[in-house]
AAA family ATPase (Amycolatopsis carbonis), 294 residues
Amino acid sequence: MSERTLPPGVIGLHALPSDHHDGPWDSMIVPAGTKERLLGTALLVLRQGRLLSGLSGAPHGLIMLAGPPGTGKTTLAQGLAQAAARKMAPRGATTLVEVDPHAFPSDMLGESQRAVSRLFLDTLPEIAARRPHTVVVIDEVEALAVRRSSASFETNPVDVHRATDAVLSGLDQLRAQCPNLVLVATTNFIDAVDEAVLSRADLVMNTTLPDEDVIEQIVASSLTELAEQWTGLMPLAQDADLRAELAKGLRGLDGRRVRKAILGALTVRTEVALDPNRLTADDLRRATQLDYLG
């Protein structure tokens, strides 16, 4: 299906597992147990969802990743889809559906509700019927499921409530229609997500800024990747004391900015940009100074 024929609100549709989706899951450096818990939650629904659907506390197949920007929520969500698809591959392919929540709000009274209802009741079940397993990723879900108790009356509170009601109804009906579907939602502002939506989540996982140990691992990973391209950097990549020193200077940054800081060391001097093999420890130190990062 080409982008021109994608249903309203759907911005990506992929068959998994696929080699070009490899990488994000393995490259993410997160606290121990994080990936296993995410993967276990997804696999339980993908594999056992139909059998669990009769339980009084049956899973909704909803995973919520909450945390500040740059903590890897979207990368984790997309990587989770590929990792789960690889595990489920012996039983058939997986469809990854990417949804843009900002495509739904409308100034027309009731239109948001109708659009959201179509997504959950028509579009997603139709897509899910094509393959045995489905993973749906919705970034910034707070745009779709606004916390009704704090909805601003400066906007259209009636339509906000109706759209969130449609999400809740859609989640319940989607569970009944597609018990083997997993929906991974991300939010930068969990307090903006409606309480009833959060209560339906099988797992709410908070992503946080990396601590110093994790930063050191990210530094090591980044330097190793550079050394694979320019072998003269291997001694820097293998210098444990240097990695620890750099990690201290990068405290408080998210993983993305840590990697960009290491990459940015190649731009400290023009001769290094032209020949990265000339990178030095001092270049790395300069790149990790807060006044240099800006």
